[in-house]
Description:
Layout: H1 4-10, E1 13-15, H2 16-25, H3 36-48, E2 52-56, E3 59-62, H4 76-81, E4 88-89, H5 91-97, E5 107-111, E6 120-122, E7 125-130, H6 134-139, E8 146-151, E9 154-159, H7 161-170, H8 178-186, H9 193-203, H10 206-218, H11 227-234, E10 242-243, E11 252-254, E12 259-261, H12 264-267
Parallel strand pairs: 5-7, 10-12
Antiparallel strand pairs: 1-3, 2-3, 4-5, 6-7, 8-9, 11-12
Amino acid sequence: MKTVNDFFQxxxxxxxxxxxxxxxxxxxxxxxxxxxxxxxxLLSYHVSKxxxxxxxxxxxxxxxxxxxxxxxxxxxxxxxxxxxxxxxxGYHTALAFHGIAYSQWNTYEYIxxxxxxxxxxxxxxxxxxxxxxxxxxxxxxxQWGVEVTDRLGCDLRVTSLxxxxxxxxxxxxxxxxxxxxxxCLEMIQYLKxxxxxxxxxxxxNSSLIAKIGFFLEQHKEQFAVEDQLLKxxxxxxxxxxxxxxxxxxxxxxxxxxxxxxxASALTRSWEESxxx
Length: 276
């Protein structure tokens, strides 16, 4: 990095911590790296000149040359990725990132160990912190299935397709319920089913395993599901029927998986019922 402007041009979005790290390690280090007042003055100057857009405290979007800060386009996936130091795009946001969202949402979820971060709204979008699954917290495996990918020159963490598949079935309420999740998952072209099973067993949730088995059995040909895999999942199903509907919803028992599911799960009449 030759100048601060070079940094801005190569970073569509950045945090003050990222800027300080680059300034500190640069051969042409800037005094602001070790002086909070200088750093604040530097950033304030560039915001006032329209070079930067302050997204929230400590997070900045670089305004492209010739554009106005208030109207320049921003990438909500990148915004979500910077709202916590350990932020990972997950659930419906991961479905959208992977290009398999059935509906377009203006809510972006990111997984973090600090799920108490307040909901943040910016430019008509809502950003929501979500806790890690209990099974990962218990085994300290929060990074399972997390991929680092490049977006507009910035690193971004997102759950893999296999983890996203399982997470969506695990927390249907974070992904719009059954009517949204089922069509999303049906858009997946290929899954590494061994990873799906490994992750499901790591979470150690019999109801979740049954939902996975139920879905894969319904789509056996699409995903080339082998009988042995279904048998493995079947052995971990709930011992008693498990209702995965809201209390005021009626459902039908799928005895093979001990699941009480909405009628639309069997008839595919998405408009008549929802699984939430």
